[in-house]
Each structure stands twice: as structure tokens, then as C-alpha cells.
Amino acid sequence: MDLIAQLTQEHQDYVFKLSTLAEVIEGIRVNGRGDYFIDAMDKLLKPLTVELDDHARREEDFLFPRLLERAPDSPVPVMIEEHAEIREKSASFGRWYPLWREGDESAYQHWADAALDLRGKFSTHMQKENLILFPLARRVLRADEIRQLMTVDDR
To answer: Which residues does the UniProt record annotate as the domain Hemerythrin-like (predicted)?
Structure first.
């Protein structure tokens, strides 16, 4: 599997995780704290903070530079700006959720808002990458270049 295929698959995984996140936030809003909700949130924290940042970094380090060389007028600069916005929401979620988890009720609205903003920004961004950027990459990069964009697991 090349990097583009892996990133596309990860996008689908994040859509599922972000949908779960929205459902859990609604569950907490309606029902209050509960072990089920906290366990679900704990499982989402690392994927939606650390791992999401790793995902963006692979795009920025391996795919974006090659696209800028071959298609200087591509939407890569916009994607980089959106990565910064997504990182900001992810970091806010990662900062406020643990405070709430440890009992600071005032932190709930901060992390819930950041998480829902993250969901919206990522969903829109992911569609641009899947529908515009990745097909562009497959058109402007040679097959051997795409093969060289190995997945993390292959390195």
C-alpha cells in the first residue's frame, strides 16, 4: 500500500472516530459523566491528538513537498493552513479533556467545543484531500514516485 492509499484509509478511520466522539459528547450532555463515556473518550484522546498530528506530518513531510514541485498552483498551501487549524483544535481538546476527566466541570464546554470544531474542520479538510489533492497527486507524480511514498509500516 502506498502512502496515498494509507492516508485515504486513515481518513475513513478518523471519520468513524470523530462520529463516535460526537455521539459520546451528546451522551455526556444528556446523561452526565459515566464510566462508559469516560472509557470511550480515553480511547479517542490519543488517536485524535498525537496520532492525528502524526498523520498530518506524514502528508507535510512526504506528499506535500513533491506536489508543490510538480503542481506549484496546487491547494497544498491551503491544506497546510488547515492542518494548523486542525492542530489547534486537537491541542485544545487534548488540553481540556484531561482536566474535565479529573473533575474540573468547567473544562467540559472547552473540550467539547474544541472536539466538535475538530470534527467539522477535519471532515471538510479530509474531503478536499480525498477528492482533490490525492487524485492530483496520482496525476502529477510518476508511478515510481508514488511507490516511493511508502507507508510508515513499510519503512
So the answer is: 3-137
- Domain with 15 in it: 3-154
Query: Which residues is 2 bridged to in the sheet?
Result: 150
Q: Per the structure, how many domains does the chain have?
A: 1
Cβ-contact 131, 150 below 8 angstroms: no
Nearest to 113 by CA among 11, 13, 22: 22
- pLDDT tens string, the chain, 155 residues long: the values are 888 999 999 999 999 999 999 999 999 999 999 999 999 999 999 999 999 999 999 999 999 999 999 999 999 999 999 999 999 999 999 999 999 999 999 999 999 999 999 999 999 999 999 999 999 999 999 888 887 776 545 44
Q: What angle do CA 144, 149, 154 make, to 5 degrees?
A: 115
- Statement: the pTM of the whole predicted model exceeds 0.85: yes
The partner residues of 150 in beta bridges, in order of sequence, read: 2
Distance CA 90, CA 48 (A): 6
| Residue 111, domain CATH | 1.20.120.520
